[in-house]
């Protein structure tokens, strides 16, 4: 019998409303999600490892202007992009994380390079970029990341002095558009990856939950791999990914119970809007969210592909 393998991805959770979504945008989003999940799945099918599978899926999402990572990153108060990313391999608990990079086309690939080639696990800012250029990444101008959509979003937020947008022409701008992936490979190894531009109008070198192991990203063999999306400040304070894993490890809670308890519990009551994707050692996948939607896709152990947007799907 073939060993089970499966993959799930997300393109961010938040307020995503049917009545504001155009058919053409919805189609673009679902097509990109499907392409990304298939890119990751192909690695698994060919016997590749889960770490490369999650990086392949997230790279494709980073290259799309539709999501808040890589090319489509939101803008800071200074009208720059500053991106964060992390990868974790559940087999040996190896980690690569970066924060506040401005000139790296694919932050998730850099995070994997930190995992593979650095004695450290978490690099930030200029140091992370120096490491990147020493390891074959090319300098990418900020212009590459600039999109009209994110500029309009920033201007609207500056006008209302917010860090979360209330009015916008884009149906999903009240959404945290981080991207992520989790996978189980045929060797039984779990991995997770998360990549983000953070939140629009952020200041002072703000870093969210995405690159922080145990907050936005986690993978541990024998238990679970998780990638989260939402208001990073809350996901850090409530150690969201670590809390799900601890519930499964110590309380023997199943995947669904552990994820739902955390996402629908105190986190939600205090304003921690968002969600997560998770996969357990058997390849069961769960999507949990306390928001009206989360862009997401999966190919399960039976090879069935699904792509969804709204919470009630
Ligand atoms: N969690 C991310 C952050 O706070 C935002 C997101 O999920 O889009 O940086």
Automatic annotation (TrEMBL):
Catalytic residue list: 178
Species this chain originates from: Vibrio metschnikovii
A Gene Ontology molecular function term of the record: hydrolase activity, acting on carbon-nitrogen (but not peptide) bonds, in linear amides
Site (Cleavage): 177-178
Protein name: Isoaspartyl peptidase
GO biological process, one term: proteolysis
Pfam family, one: Asparaginase_2
Binding of substrate, residues: 206-209, 229-232
Alphabetical keyword list: Autocatalytic cleavage, Hydrolase, Protease
Highest taxon listed in the record's lineage: Bacteria
Keyword match Protease: yes
């Amino acid at each position: 019998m073939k060993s089970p393998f499966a993959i799930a991805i997300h393109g961010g959770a938040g307020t995503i409303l049917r009545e504001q979504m155009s058919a053409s945008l919805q189609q673009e989003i679902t097509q990109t999600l499907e392409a990304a999940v298939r890119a990751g799945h192909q690695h698994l099918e060919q016997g590749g490892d889960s770490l490369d599978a999650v990086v392949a899926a997230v790279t494709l999402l980073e290259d799309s202007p539709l999501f808040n990572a890589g090319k489509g990153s939101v803008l800071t108060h200074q009208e720059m992009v500053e991106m964060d990313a992390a990868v974790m391999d559940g087999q040996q608990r190896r980690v690569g994380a970066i924060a506040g990079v401005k000139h790296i086309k694919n932050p998730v690939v850099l995070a994997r390079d930190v995992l593979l080639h650095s004695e450290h696990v978490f690099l930030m800012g200029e140091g992370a970029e120096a490491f990147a250029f020493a390891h074959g990444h090319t300098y990418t101008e900020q212009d590459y990341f600039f999109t009209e959509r994110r500029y309009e979003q920033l201007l609207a937020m500056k006008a209302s002095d917010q860090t979360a947008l209330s009015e916008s022409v884009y149906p999903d701008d009240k959404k945290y558009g981080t991207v992520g992936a989790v996978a189980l490979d045929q060797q039984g190894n779990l991995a997770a990856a998360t990549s983000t531009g953070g939140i629009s109008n952020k200041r002072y070198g703000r870093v969210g939950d995405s690159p922080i192991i145990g907050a936005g990203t986690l993978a541990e063999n024998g238990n679970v791999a998780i990638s989260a999306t939402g208001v990073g400040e809350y996901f850090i304070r409530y150690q969201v990914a670590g809390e799900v894993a601890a519930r499964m490890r110590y309380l023997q809670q199943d995947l669904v119970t552990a994820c739902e308890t955390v996402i629908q519990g105190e986190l939600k009551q205090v304003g921690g809007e968002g969600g997560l994707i998770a996969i357990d050692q058997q390849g069961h996948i769960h999507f949990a969210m306390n928001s009206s939607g989360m862009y997401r896709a999966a190919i399960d152990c039976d090879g069935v592909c699904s792509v969804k947007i709204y919470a009630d799907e």
